[in-house]
């Protein structure tokens, strides 16, 4: 049984998880650069990144490092603001603004994922909406995520994206 990692944990301590952050903070058990984690390959069976990926300049390298430390079939849960969310743009430390389809680049759903040498299986993705008009956005998204993002996303803004991935490694 592998370890559980909370990468970019900040002050959020999660029971049974090793908190890792590049800054010394109350949630961090380990202070380290997320691009060069001090762990052996294939040791983690679960990884959480809660509002972290948008702060990382080199997302491809981050995903490669997550893949490196993950066991086969490890779970990886990522949460980030949708690019239409005010919180995506309010923070000047955000390098990237994610769409519903940004994660596909790293999964078996995207033919070009071989450029990044990782393979995650997308288990689930969720988009949060709030308010009355959020219900309209939610309905449009439910009918067609592509139509929502191409046509309606700036009218009915989303809040948070949640992705659940599973590491796929050759055995």
Question: Could you describe the 3D structure shown?
Answer:
The two termini are 17 Å apart. A seven-stranded mixed beta sheet has the order 3-2-1-4-5-7-6. It has helices at 59-69, 86-90, 131-143, 145-152; strands at 3-7, 18-21, 30-31, 44-50, 70-81, 120-127, 160-167. Helix 3 crosses helix 4. The protein has a single domain (3-128, 160-167), classed as Rossmann fold. The chain has 171 residues and is of the alpha/beta class. The chain contains four helices and seven strands; from the N terminus they run E-E-E-E-H-E-H-E-H-H-E. The model has no long low-confidence stretch (mean pLDDT 93). Helices cover 22% and strands 27% of the residues. It is globular.
Note the run of SSEs as H and E: EEEEHEHEHHE
What oligomeric assembly is this protein in? single chain
Mean pLDDT: 93
Second CATH tier, the architecture: 3-Layer(aba) Sandwich
CATH superfamily descriptor: Vaccinia Virus protein VP39
Q: Count of helical segments?
A: 4
Q: What structural class do the secondary elements suggest?
A: alpha/beta
Q: Give the tally of β-strands.
A: 7
* CATH T-level fold name: Rossmann fold
The strand line-up of the biggest sheet is 3-2-1-4-5-7-6
Strand content: 25-35%
Uncertain ranges: none
What is the CATH domain class? Alpha Beta
Gyration radius from CA atoms, angstroms: 16 Å
CA-CA gap between termini: 17 Å
In the residues, how many domains can be counted? 1
- Tell me, what's the shape? globular
């Amino acid at each position: 049984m592998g370890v559980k990692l909370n990468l970019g944990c900040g002050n959020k301590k999660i029971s049974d998880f090793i908190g890792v952050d590049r800054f010394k903070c109350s949630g961090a058990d380990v202070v380290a650069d997320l691009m060069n984690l001090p762990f052996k390959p294939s040791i983690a069976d679960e990884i959480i990144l809660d509002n972290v990926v948008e702060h990382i300049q080199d997302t491809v390298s981050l995903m490669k490092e997550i893949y490196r430390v993950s066991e086969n079939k490890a779970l990886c849960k990522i949460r980030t603001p949708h690019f239409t969310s005010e919180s995506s743009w309010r923070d000047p430390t955000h390098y990237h603004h994610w769409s519903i389809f940004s994660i596909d680049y790293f999964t078996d759903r995207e033919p070009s994922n071989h450029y990044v040498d990782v393979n995650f299986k997308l288990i689930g993705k969720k988009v949060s909406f709030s308010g009355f008009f959020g219900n309209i956005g939610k309905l449009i998204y439910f009918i067609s995520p592509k139509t929502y993002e191409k046509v309606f996303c700036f009218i009915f803004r989303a809040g948070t994206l949640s992705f659940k991935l599973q590491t796929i490694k050759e055995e």
